[in-house]
Write a structure and sequence with these properties.
It is a single chain. The chain is mainly alpha-helical and 97 residues long. It has five helices and no strands.
Length: 97
């Protein structure tokens, strides 16, 4: 079991690499995107960001991204977050059997 922060980082990057190489990462991203689109969350975020951008002078992608990153992280529906976390947990459990 990892004991130092460096060990945890190594394990994290190894797991991330396995997710990408196996194609599981793409499946999880697709599931997340589908769920968020299905409930209208993606459209809502897109609409809010467009409205906010229209009021910016000068328009700055970096500022817009910074402002909406916090909003998107806190407004992500709990049910969707739990479903994605369950998919990740399932994959991790399979890797460490």
């Amino acid at each position: 079991m990892p004991t130092t922060p460096a060990d945890v980082d190594i394990l994290y990057y190894q797991l991330q690499r396995r997710l990408v190489e196996s194609g599981e990462w793409d499946r999880i991203k697709f599931t997340l995107g589908s769920k968020l689109t299905e409930i209208g969350w993606s459209d809502d975020v897109r609409h809010r960001s467009k409205e906010h951008a229209r009021g910016m002078d000068p328009l700055s992608f970096r500022v817009l991204l910074k402002e909406f990153t916090a909003h998107t992280q806190t407004s992500l529906p709990l049910a969707v977050k739990r479903e994605v976390m369950a998919l990740i947990r399932h994959y991790v459990d399979q890797q460490f059997e």
